[in-house]
Amino acid sequence: TEWKTEFTTPPKITLEELTAKIGDAAKAKAIFDKAVSGFTKKKNLWWQVLDATPELRAFCEAHPDWCIYGECYGQIQKGFNYGVPNGQSAFMAFDILVPGDNGPRWLNAEEFAKVCDEGNLPRVPHLGNIPFNFETLVAMAEGNTTVPGSNHLREGVVFRPAFSERWDPKL
To answer: The whole model's pTM is what?
Structure first.
């Protein structure tokens, strides 16, 4: 039920405050001129991704009490564009938190896949179902990415239990 501001805003600081923090008036003026005076308004990353993923927007609007966890990717980190065209970004879900009778709960792995597939939500590649073993997970985090259209190293791996963890509202 909470949406981030669509457009970025300039830093809310005066030149005097910045000078006091930095201690160097010339350096503070250069930073101020670039960050505040020269500020150009643009859509923040989350809105760029939401615009590029209409399924995500539709899903969020249809499920306002659900929280989707995922990753924005593409033209965010130099050298790791995951096949996304220049200047664009995309999104992949890796978990969903939903309201429950005893407080929020995480979807089980099977429920998560089903919800994503039914809502056409992009999700991280599924590498398999394995018993927990730290060394295996470390090995799975290495190598080339399995994201279609990509040609670079894998940045890691998301792992989750097959069935939701126990939940304690106090924690």
So the answer is: 0.73
